[in-house]
Amino acid sequence: MLFNNILSCNKPYLIEINQPSDNFYYKFDYDTRSFNVNMEFQHFHDFYEIFILLDERANHIVEGELYEIQLFDIVALKPGILHKTHYPKGDPKKRLIINFIFDKNFLGLKEDLKEILSIFNSPLPIYRFDETERKIIFNLLYDIFNFSKSKTSLKNLMIHNKFIEFLYYLYMYKNRNIYEIESNLDSITNKIYSITSFIHTNYTNDLSLDYIAGKFCISPYYLSHQFKKITGFNLINYIQMTRIKNAQQLLLNTNLKISDIALQCGFKSFSQFNRVFNKFCKAPPSQFRINNIKNNK
Predict the structure, then answer these.
(1) Distance CA 77, CA 92 (A)
(2) Is 209 exposed, middle or buried (0-12, 13-18, 19+ CB in 10 A)?
(3) Closest to 156 in 3D by CA, of 100, 111, 116
(4) How far apart are CA 2 and CA 146, in angstroms?
(5) What is the pLDDT of residues 195-240, one digit of tens each?
(6) What homologous superfamily does CATH list for 187-295?
(7) Taking the domains of the chain in order of start, what are their residue ranges?
(8) pLDDT at 1 > cutoff 50
(9) Residue 236: CA atoms inside 13 Å, Cβ hemisphere, count?
(10) What's the 3-state SS for 214-268?
(11) Residue 9 has pLDDT above 70, yes or no
């Protein structure tokens, strides 16, 4: 496979076209990451992201759901989705991260591009293919790397064309996805990640330690202890962080009143929202909105 040439490269490699504020933006970031750079909490982007593991194994957490991934697995994340990668202890793991934005009205192809991008709306965000499909998909990425090194003045256009073709084949092969959710985790770890997924789905509701413990048939004390041990957060802080992250999205991407955002994200009052937001973001929500919208212009 031609893409093995990329796998054998031990040096970071970056392709970047334009800026995230432009109508077209691409970033192909080939590098390694290790256990000691694991993010504390899940984050989100205003752009699409494709994560491809180029190493033996890692975990990806998407909206609180944990997925075990392996070599050549593709994680497809649409804008605004909370996620993080969890790398195991040991040698740094190779990965390719692709960030992109493009104008869906390009050349009057809005409906076509909308259809291709539907791969990011799947309930299962992980794609795994057999050798035949994988060869076609990954050789397109290899073509992109080749074009990035060329001296032609049209290389950015060719990278864009090859990437659209890459998305096209992901779309065409989506029903051949052979990824299945399998877990080698112990039962309590599986249960805790079932709980984090439940929180991400139900953060707008009134959640408490006792309520969740009862729903998942586990004692409040044991849940509290195991949740902290496995996720690094106590349960209430995790609920609050999930609400705050979703509130940040609404602050940046809508014109909703802050009081309405507070209620939409599960806070009982504006004062409670303001207090918790300050606690985690070191700024009130109004200032966060002003600062970040200004910085993104």
Answers:
(1) 23
(2) middle
(3) 100
(4) 11
(5) 999 999 999 999 999 999 999 999 999 999 999 999 999 999 999 9
(6) Homeodomain-like (1.10.10.60)
(7) 4-176, 187-295
(8) no
(9) 6
(10) HHCCCCHHHHHHHHHHHHCCCHHHHHHHHHHHHHHHHHHHCCCCHHHHHHHCCCC
(11) no
Task: Express each pLDDT in 49-96 by its tens digit.
Answer: 999 999 989 999 999 999 999 999 999 999 999 999 999 888 889 999
Per-residue pLDDT tens digits for 247-266: 999 999 999 999 999 999 99
Domain 4-176 indexed as CATH 2.60.120.280: yes
Helices (H), the chain: 4-7, 110-116, 131-149, 155-172, 187-202, 209-215, 220-231, 235-253, 258-264, 270-281, 285-295
Tell me the C-alpha distance between 95 and 97, whole Å: 7
Rounded-to-10 torsion of CA 73, 78, 79, 80? -90
CA-based max dimension of the chain: 64
The CA distance from 247 to 265, in Å, is 6
Structure tokens at 230: 């496995």
Give burial (CB, 10 Å; 0-12/13-18/19+) of 185. middle
Residue bearing the bigger pLDDT, 248 or 5? 248
Quote the CA–CA distance of 100 and 19 in Å, as a whole number: 10
